[in-house]
Design a protein that fits this description.
The structure holds 2 protein chains of 2 kinds.
Chain A: H1 2-23, H2 30-56, H3 64-80, H4 85-109, H5 114-132, E1 139-140, H6 154-174, H7 176-186, H8 188-193, H9 198-224, E2 226-227, H10 235-247, H11 257-277, H12 281-306
Antiparallel strand pairs in A: 1-2
Helix pairs in contact in A: 1-11, 1-12, 2-6, 2-9, 2-10, 2-11, 3-4, 3-5, 3-9, 4-5, 4-9, 6-7, 6-9, 7-9, 10-11, 11-12
Chain B: E1 5-16, E2 19-30, E3 34-38, H1 45-52, E4 60-65, E5 68-69, H2 75-80, E6 83-86, H3 98-102, E7 109-110, E8 113-116, H4 118-133, H5 148-161, E9 166-170, H6 178-193, E10 197-201, H7 205-211, E11 214-219, E12 222-227, H8 234-241, E13 260-269, E14 273-281, E15 285-289, H9 296-303, E16 311-316, E17 319-320, H10 326-331, E18 334-337, H11 341-345, H12 352-356, E19 365-366, E20 369-370, H13 372-386, H14 402-416, E21 420-424, H15 432-447, E22 451-455, H16 459-465, E23 468-473, E24 476-482, H17 488-497, H18 501-508
Parallel strand pairs in B: 3-10, 3-11, 6-9, 9-10, 15-22, 15-23, 18-21, 21-22
Antiparallel strand pairs in B: 1-2, 1-4, 4-5, 7-8, 11-12, 13-14, 13-16, 16-17, 19-20, 23-24
Helix pairs in contact in B: 13-14, 14-15
Classes of the chains: A mainly alpha, B alpha/beta.
């Protein structure tokens, strides 16, 4: 039984794969696997890992989707003005980092609780996007216009995701910074009493997480060749869901990158599988929500039984 | 009043996880008397009170209330038998009015209907406060707007409204200024005259002398005598409180004090610290002590940068230390073993290794990456050296006992190589075996050239491990002595009154 409690998330994922394979013949194919990676996993994994860093440090970031959006906004608007792609990418990432700096300032300097601080940032970010786009009109790059090296090609995108994820995992696992974040998240007072600068830690965590969100924004907008206001926000809830699903894989309930990635995979498989089964888009959330309940309920009942 | 005992505790035993807190403590309270209970920290006073309140069940012994044996006492049962407790910390809802607090749950009704008669509520409240304490507190005042003494009075009055037979006051004056305390004393005199029996627990011997008919002295969980404070002078009671057997707990003083490492000059902070100066030298263990609120905690916290001073300066190796920054303090080589181990010292969900290296990660880093093997080796060394009982560096702190957890906190600063180590009540909740190890390590640390500051309210421990002792009283250092020419009697006298016995005698003459 303990295996079910500890690895309920993995078991749920495997069960879904089996069910979808049986009922949707197209599910079990290389092409579909690629589709899951490109259309679902790639962007959500970056946003969710960014969220995981913040959660591991003891906070939450409701404005992580705002950082995604700000990056696409800067990138697409500049590309539309014929700015070279490299510069447009840099500007987009800078805008995303600005969101992180703003959050860190509110939390570390003004000591506003992360939930409220990032909620405020979320609201402000929404307004900025609406103001910049006449109330929310998407910006499209003109099709057919001769445009050299526009954005990134598909395989380059996947590489970028892989490199970002591996680098973040390495930093969190092997660097002193990762250890400090872990200690700060578990016992903020112990970190303070050990002489760690909790302000610097908060700033670095938000910089790193908004950078990841920024990369997600660039990839998102380069694949759809447009910027739709507030589209990044759509990833917020899935990112939170994946992060907390992932905590069930850890014995002490910590947020971990590997756990989060399994959570992202689960949510991606659900979306893709339901699509193949022809289930209405509007039912997807019901299934995702039910799965989150199930996995968390099994895991928590296991923890309380162990005590 | 006759010598009828309303309460008798006989041979009470109580131990917690193998550590005996009470070993055969007895106490007998006569009807209509005020009975004092004194003893050093850790003597078992609060455990005895909790046994009487039904919070702890005794392992042995009997409790007789009104002449009847009452086994299986619960808090509810104690109250129904007429024993009421005024605990140290205030337990009134801050946003209720005085009248509401007094009659909470027993409000007068309007013609017997389930409607509160607010008129009568206010009138009754005013009357009862006037009658018992001869004090005029508005029944409409909010509890949070009252002074501490007034809150204490409301709390006592509330207890009196339940018609108690016995009132237990646990350190009622700790938060009171002198005039407020005097108010409380006259009220106690009046209650006694009305026939109430009172058990009075206090650190302050002058209060015991002022109020009590009898006083029982606890030492090491056992009563060592009951005397009349009018016949036995304070010094005699102090002598009873102190354990004369100085055992082999403490290592020999071997180090010689060298150059000054940390110099504190004129440190002040609001009411907590006023003009405190103290120098810590290389290789020296300095102990500081005082009552709750005397400034020892504030001093230690200010040195470590947890609080900012309002004036004064701290020099480390002759250079000014940035005030109010723990980051600066640790970077410059100051370590703190905090009193609240579980919230400040260690993370239960981190491993021994992760806890022990947290303050010195840069030492285990090469080319941006942590050197896990080097960490494990270093922590393994300290596990052996301090005799930490654990599966190894990768064990979660959750699985270690209190004493071993404390050793991990100590290794955090040993690994850090701190020049100045501050230990705040280093052996609270630590068993005797681990205590000896910790004392030995403190001495070894001093021998290796660190300057040590120990904050302790355990006077035996303080004189046992320190080279020099400074006594704090109401935010000031009132005495600084070599520990070798300090006897326990003088020290306790200094701690509780802020003066030496000599001074008191001179003043009396």
């Amino acid at each position: 039984m303990t295996i079910v409690y500890r690895f309920g998330l993995v078991i749920a994922l495997l069960a879904l794969v089996v069910v979808f394979s049986l009922f949707a013949p197209a599910f079990l194919s290389v092409a579909n696997f690629q589709s899951i990676l490109f259309n679902h996993f790639a962007i959500l994994s970056l946003v969710a890992v960014g969220m995981t860093l913040v959660v591991a440090s003891g906070g939450i970031d409701l404005s992580i989707g705002t950082a995604v959006d700000m990056a696409s906004l800067g990138y697409i608007l500049l590309l539309a003005q014929d700015v070279p792609p490299a510069e447009a990418i840099a500007a987009g990432l800078l805008l995303a980092l600005l969101v992180g700096v703003f959050n860190a300032g509110l939390i570390a300097t003004l000591e506003i609780p992360p939930f409220l601080a990032t909620l405020g940032t979320l609201f402000i970010g929404q307004s900025i996007q609406q103001l910049a786009t006449d109330g929310g009109v998407p910006v499209y790059l003109i099709a057919g216009a001769p445009r050299p090296i526009f954005g990134l090609v598909d395989s380059a995108r996947l590489w970028l995701v892989a490199v970002s994820l591996v680098a973040t995992f390495a930093v969190m696992t092997y660097s002193p910074f990762g250890r400090k974040v872990l200690a700060f998240g578990i016992g903020p007072q112990v970190a303070r009493y050990s002489g760690l600068s909790t302000k610097t830690l908060t700033l670095k965590v938000f910089l790193l997480s908004s950078l990841l969100a920024g990369v997600a924004g660039i990839i998102l907008s380069s694949s759809v060749k447009s910027y739709a206001p507030l589209s990044g926000n759509a990833y917020l809830m899935d990112a939170i869901g994946a992060t907390f699903l992932g905590t069930t894989l850890n014995a002490t309930g910590r947020a971990s990158i590997i756990g989060t990635l399994v959570g992202v995979l689960l949510l991606s498989v659900v979306k893709n599988g339901l699509l193949l089964l022809g289930v209405s888009f509007y039912w997807q959330q019901v299934v995702s929500g039910t799965l989150i309940f199930l996995v968390l309920a099994v895991s928590f009942s296991g923890k309380s039984a162990a005590h | 009043m006759s010598n009828v005992s309303v309460l008798a505790l006989k041979g009470i035993y109580k131990s917690f996880g193998g550590v005996e807190a009470l070993s055969g403590a007895s106490l007998s309270l006569e009807r209509g008397s005020v009975h004092g209970l004194v003893g050093q920290n850790g003597a078992g006073k609060s455990t005895l009170v909790k046994v009487l309140a039904g919070i702890h069940q005794p392992d042995g012994g009997t409790i007789e209330i009104g002449g009847h044996d009452t086994p299986h006492l619960t808090p509810h049962r104690a109250e129904s038998l007429g024993i009421h407790f005024i605990h140290q910390d205030r337990l009134l809802a801050p946003t209720l009015t005085v009248a509401e607090s007094l009659y909470l749950g027993a409000e007068p009704r309007w013609f017997g209907l389930p409607i509160i008669d607010r008129q009568r509520l206010r009138r009754d409240a005013r009357d009862v406060l006037q009658r018992v304490f001869e004090i005029d507190i508005s029944p409409d005042a909010l509890v949070r707007d009252l002074s501490t003494a007034e809150q204490k009075i409301v709390q006592i009055t509330r207890a009196l409204l339940q018609n108690p037979r016995i009132l237990v006051l646990d350190e009622p004056t700790t938060a009171l200024v002198r005039s407020e305390a005097e108010h409380l004393f006259s009220a106690i005199d009046r209650l006694k005259a009305e026939g109430l029996s009172i058990l009075y627990i206090s650190h302050y011997l002058n209060e015991i002398e002022r109020l009590c008919d009898k006083v029982t002295v606890l030492r090491n969980g056992k009563d060592v005598g009951t005397v009349s404070p009018r016949e036995v002078p304070a010094a005699g009671i102090v002598a009873m409180m102190i354990d004369r057997k100085v055992d082999a707990l403490f290592p020999k003083r071997t180090s010689v004090a060298g150059d000054p490492v940390l110099e504190v000059r004129g440190l002040s902070r609001d009411k907590e610290l006023s003009d405190v100066s103290l120098t810590l030298r290389k290789g020296e263990v300095v102990g500081i002590t005082g009552l709750v609120g005397s400034g020892t905690k504030a001093f230690a916290r200010t040195l470590f940068g947890l609080m900012s001073p309002t004036s004064g300066e701290i020099l480390l190796h002759g250079e000014r230390l940035k005030p109010g920054s723990t980051v600066a303090a640790v970077a410059r080589g100051i370590g703190l073993v905090p009193e609240d181990r579980r919230n400040h010292g260690i993370s239960l969900d981190l491993t021994v290794r992760e806890n022990a290296t947290l303050a010195s990660l840069s030492r285990f880093t090469r080319k941006l990456a942590l050197l896990f093997a080097k960490e494990r080796a270093a922590v393994g060394d300290f596990i052996d050296r301090l005799g930490i009982k654990t599966r190894g560096p990768e064990a979660l702190l959750r699985n270690l006992s209190g004493g071993n957890q404390q050793k991990v906190v100590l290794s955090k600063w040993l690994i850090h190589g701190s020049d100045v180590v501050i230990l705040d009540e280093p052996t609270v909740g630590v068993d005797v075996g681990a205590k000896v190890d910790i004392y030995r390590e403190i001495r070894a640390l001093a021998d290796s050239g660190a300057a040590i500051l120990v904050v302790s309210s355990d006077l035996l421990e303080l004189t046992g491990i320190s080279d020099r002792v400074a006594v704090f009283f109401r935010g000031r250092i009132v005495a600084e002595r070599q520990a070798s020419n300090l006897n326990q009697d003088d020290l306790l006298q200094l701690v509780t009154t802020g003066q030496t016995a000599e001074k008191i005698r001179n003043a009396a003459e």
